[in-house]
Amino acid sequence: MPLPLEREEIQHLTEELEHIIAAHLAWFKQINRTLVCGSGLPAADLALDAHRSSPFGQWYYVGSRHPLADYPVFQELGHIQQAMHAAARMALLETGDGRRPEPGIHDSCIDLALRLNTKLRKLQLDIIGELLTTDTLTGCASRRGMLGKLREEQERAVRIQRPCSIALMDFDRFKKVNDELGHPAGDAVLRQGMKLTLGLLRRYDSIYRYGGEEFLICLPGTPLKDAETVIERIRKALFKQPIHLPSGQTLHVTASFGLAQMHPRQPVEDSINQADEALIRAKENGRNRIEVRTSD
Q1: Half-sphere exposure (Cβ direction) of 208: Cα atoms closer than 13 Å
Q2: What is the predicted pLDDT for the residue at 4?
Q3: What are the tens digits of pLDDT across the range 142-190?
Q4: Parallel, antiparallel, or unpaired: how do β-strands 290-293 and 255-261 relate?
Q5: What does CATH list as the number for 146-293?
Q6: Which part of the chain has CATH 3.30.70.270?
Q7: Pick the catalytic residue: 130, 153, 213, 228?
Q8: pTM score
Q9: Does residue 213 carry a catalytic annotation?
Q10: How many helices (H) and strands (E) does the chain have?
Q11: What are the residues facing 261 on neighbouring strands?
């Protein structure tokens, strides 16, 4: 589920969800006690807008757009929660004067509450997975799980009959930055350089920290010619963008790129090797350039 968020924001979401899950379970305990024992009729749950006034609703229906709003599981939460409160209201209306709700209504409310809890936990685990597979410094995806994701893109390229291109990106003379200006300066180069790069990619593109100062960019549905245009845009923007160092200095850096098209019937590793060969040529031919590895 790649999230366009900083690591700290992702971590905050996991903690936030833990509080929401606890609040939901407290509500579930109370509503079940009322339906079973007939005690403590919660008037707030009889309101037509109870789904909005509950702790979950106050978190879910925030004024500004929630960072998870485009995530399918998050959207499903709202539908389940509204249905749950509607079922709870019907069950509560049947409770009183020693009466109990119909078993079907009671079961519907309980089933929806349990389903909501399951979905909240799934969302939390997905976000934790995102946290574990995100590079802490740059916010890019880490190498963990990269090959699996690339194989999925390879299969998708075959299925939709649209090519997928990959590029290896390497910051030029990065060791010199670390040696002469220190590792905090090198970190600033990677952090700011990749923030710029991520901002120039499409929502369905992906980028992985391949190792050190080297990154792999995956461009689904993109033939080599179009991919070269995308990568050239990144190269030019990086060349123009000053990097602000912790010392107060600014630094201009460049990067070299090796571009290849993912072969539909060869191992993904072969395509990565082809991009790497192109990257080596880019370095040998003067750096701050793109070399394209065309099919044999």
Answers
A1: 19
A2: 54
A3: 888 889 999 999 999 999 999 999 999 999 999 999 999 999 999 999 9
A4: parallel
A5: 3.30.70.270
A6: 146-293
A7: 213
A8: 0.64
A9: yes
A10: 10, 7
A11: 165
